[in-house]
Sequence to fold (151 residues):
Amino acid sequence: MTFRNISAKNILVIHGPNLNLLGKREPEIYGKTTLDDINRKLSAISRAAEVKLDTFQSNNEGELINRVQQAMDDETDFIIINPAGLTHTSIALRDALAATGVPFIEIHLSNIYAREVFRHKSYFSDLAIGVISGLGAKGYELALLFALNDR
Ligand code: DQA
Fold:
C-alpha cells in the first residue's frame, strides 16, 4: 500500500471485546490505564485539534459490525480499531471494514507477536494502513496523531 497523507476530521475509535475491563484485566499484560482514561485522552487531543471523535466499545461482534457499517453513512474518514480477541477470528468484522473503505489503524496494547502463536494471526493487518502493537495505551494516541497528520 502506498503512503497516504491523512488529515482526518471525523474519527471513529472502536474497542473490541473485554477492553471494557482495562485497568482490571491482566494489568501485567494490558497495563493499569482504563478505557475511560484512554477515551478521555483521545477526546482531549481531538478537541484541541478541532476534529470530531466518537468512541465505541462492545463485547458483541454483531454490534461492532453494525457500528463499522454505520461509518459508511456518518462521514467517518478514519478508524482506529483494537479488535481485541476478534483480531484472530473475525472474518466478518474484517469484511465490514473492507466494505466501508475507510482507512484504519489496527491497535494492540500488547505485542501480539511476543505472545501465544494463536495471537500472531490477524485478519486485519493486511487491510490496515498500519499496525501499532505493544506500546500500551500510548498506541492509541500515536494512531490519532497520525490520523490528524501531526507527524
Ligand atoms: C489485544 C490482544 C489480543 O490478542 C487480545 O485478545 C485482546 C487485546 C491487545 O490490545 O493487546 O483482547 O488486542
In short: The chain has a mean pLDDT of 95. The domain at 10-149 is CATH 3.40.50.9100 (Rossmann fold). The chain has one domain: 10-149. Residues 18, 82, 84-85, 87, 108-110, 112, 119 surround DQA (CB under 6 Å).
